Amino acid sequence: MIDFFYGPGPNPLKIALFLAETGLPFKARPVDTYRGAQHDAAFRALNPNGKVPALVDTEGPEGRTAIVFDSTAILLYLAEKTRQFVGEAQDRPQLLSWLMFVATGLGPFSGQAVHFQNAAPKGLDYALNRYRREAERHYQVLNDHLEGRSFIVGDRYTIVDMSAWGWLDRAMRVMNTEDRPLERWPNLVRFMDMINARPAVQHAQAIMSGHAFKTTMDEEARQAMYPTSFSPASKGTVS
Asked: Per the confidence metrics, is the pTM higher than 0.90?
């Protein structure tokens, strides 16, 4: 059995999509990040970095329990466990390359763009511009790569597509607009339309909405997510 520890956000969403696509049996374990549940000792034992998602698989390699954290690591683990959505053997170098493009570029810069536009103190124009422009640059790189392609790697749907979809799904917040946020990147629009048409997407969204997470950014949430100082008792994170 798989225990899927998740909270609201694009990284858990990717894992929800994989679980929906494969039909793997799992239990959804909500972690309310705005209430600071990611800092609880029990969760830190699973992910010392205090971020969602995390996964516990009691039927891991050689019958041993496996604990995996970080969405990219979880996608790789589940894909290799099920032998699904990993592409062809010859696609492996490109699969790893584009998976890391999302993990180290598209995802982090998108997340920081959202933070500096919505949560950071006013007046940090350099940081806001830096992260917003980098998010847009990553959009352009992926848009150019998708010219004449249906999928990011090879000729079939893989975990790379799931990973990119998780962050592109948040384009409205990254671009700070509700009006066609990806219209400058037509290949990304086409890509998202294709993925969103998959039945598993609705299932994934249902998984993510299965718990009423706290959504109010009050002082408790700010201290949980963005503490003003670091201490062993207050280890904030952006999940």
From this structure: yes
